[in-house]
């Protein structure tokens, strides 16, 4: 969290009561609020990501992020609710659905590696959430257990799980963080050490003239998440390396070689290994697609047939009849325009810096050009990044 991180930026916003700080990232802090939109109306807990305006280097990125996230309405994606400016105008804030059980990494640390059926439960949810995002044209680019949040299911039942309300089957997984992360533009490259763990080989190899398909890269990252859930370690790593840099370099060269093994002491079924091999395949052209993953025998255990077509149906429905958004596009744009106004400390304001952000905007513009030409949203990678770095139906 930055030094100027707010204690309670919404203290004078009507309807918002601060409960506690949930944590902080390179971009700002995330606070838990109780909110009541109208007197006598329903009360809900929400997670609020707060960004100091004078520290926000690129409002274009915020805008893209908000517009991508806002349109994603799915049981396995954290719901975006609203963008606002604090009453004193110093902070931009994003109100989101609150995931009350922390992230998958902390959960794994607490419980140790998952049994196969538990890993499958979470992996099914991740794949359905990811497939939905891809169908809506959003590539995540930053999938990792820290960005997969957990929330207790509304129908958590003790009898299914021997009284264990924290059992995986009582938790829903939700994809969070669609770009306002340190992989974006807001932290120095050094602070990104370690994040290479989830990066696909083609991402590491990419350069200004060497592009990669973000969909395939997301699938690779999802495969690493599955491996980590099963074995409580990453497939590419050198934990005995003397320094962080040596560890990162070793990890990168292992990823580029595409060589990995499963620990012999932790056997998994042949079906599970077959799926892992299909996903953690260094050649993106040979890597399983999401639909191939969904029809894999290991993946489909316990799934009602409707689960496999749910996203297509949902996306079609949402295209015809947009889901009820809390805030219209015009309202979001008005907040962004106000936040970006000169003199407010934004990119054009006093002290605004365009170095990294200007660079990234250029990259994003190339991305848009690709999309205009009708290509899939390819990510244009740069040395900048190389340095840095319920659907409910799935319940068994
Ligand atoms: N919707 C949410 N519900 C519950 N907790 C959340 C939510 N969003 C974020 N958090 C928690 O708030 C903390 C800070 O999140 P944030 O996304 O700002 O940082 P990060 O992911 O740790 O780092 P970075 O953004 O730099 O990658 C994390 O512990 C995260 O789990």
UniProtKB/TrEMBL annotation:
Keyword ATP-binding: yes
Top-level taxon in the UniProt lineage: Eukaryota
Gene3D superfamilies for this protein: Transferase(Phosphotransferase) domain 1 (1.10.510.10)
SMART domains: S_TKc
Stretches assigned to the Protein kinase domain: 16-299
Positions that bind ATP: 49, 97-99, 146-147, 177
Protein's recorded name: Protein kinase domain-containing protein
Species for this entry: Gonium pectorale (Green alga)
């Amino acid at each position: 969290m930055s030094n100027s991180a707010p204690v309670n930026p919404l203290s004078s916003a009507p309807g918002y009561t601060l409960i506690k700080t949930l944590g902080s990232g390179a971009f700002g802090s995330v606070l838990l609020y109780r909110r009541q939109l109208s007197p006598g109306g329903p009360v809900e807990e929400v997670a609020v990501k707060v960004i100091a305006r004078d520290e926000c280097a690129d409002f274009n990125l915020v805008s893209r992020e908000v517009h991508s996230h806002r349109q994603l309405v799915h049981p396995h994606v954290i719901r975006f609710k609203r963008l606002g400016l604090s009453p004193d105008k110093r902070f931009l804030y994003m109100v989101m659905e609150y995931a009350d059980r922390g992230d998958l990494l902390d959960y794994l640390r607490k419980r140790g590696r998952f049994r196969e059926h538990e890993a499958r439960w979470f992996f099914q949810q991740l794949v359905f959430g990811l497939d939905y995002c891809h169908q809506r044209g959003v590539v995540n680019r930053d999938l990792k257990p820290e960005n997969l949040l957990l929330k207790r299911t509304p129908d958590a039942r003790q009898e299914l799980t021997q009284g264990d309300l924290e059992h995986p089957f009582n938790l829903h997984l939700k994809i969070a963080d669609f770009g306002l992360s340190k992989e974006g533009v807001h932290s120095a490259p050094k602070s990104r050490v370690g994040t290479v763990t989830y990066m696909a080989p083609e991402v590491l190899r990419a350069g200004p003239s060497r592009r990669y398909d973000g969909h395939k890269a997301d699938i690779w990252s999802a495969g690493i998440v599955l491996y980590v859930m099963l074995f409580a370690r990453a497939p590419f790593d050198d934990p005995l390396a003397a320094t962080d840099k040596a560890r990162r370099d070793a990890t990168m060269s292992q990823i580029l070689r595409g060589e990995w093994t499963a620990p012999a002491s932790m056997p998994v079924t042949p079906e599970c290994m077959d799926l892992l091999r299909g996903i953690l395949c260094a050649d993106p052209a040979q890597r399983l697609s999401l639909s191939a993953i969904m029809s894999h025998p290991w993946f489909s255990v316990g799934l009602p047939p409707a689960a496999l077509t749910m996203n297509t149906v949902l996306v079609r429905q949402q295209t015809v009849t947009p889901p009820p958004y809390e805030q219209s596009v015009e309202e979001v744009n008005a907040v962004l325009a106000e936040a970006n106004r000169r003199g407010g400390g934004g990119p054009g304001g006093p002290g605004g810096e365009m170095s990294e952000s200007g660079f990234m905007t250029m990259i994003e513009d190339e991305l848009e050009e690709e999309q205009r030409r009708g290509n899939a949203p390819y990510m244009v990678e740069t040395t900048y990044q190389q340095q840095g770095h319920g659907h409910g139906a799935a319940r068994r």
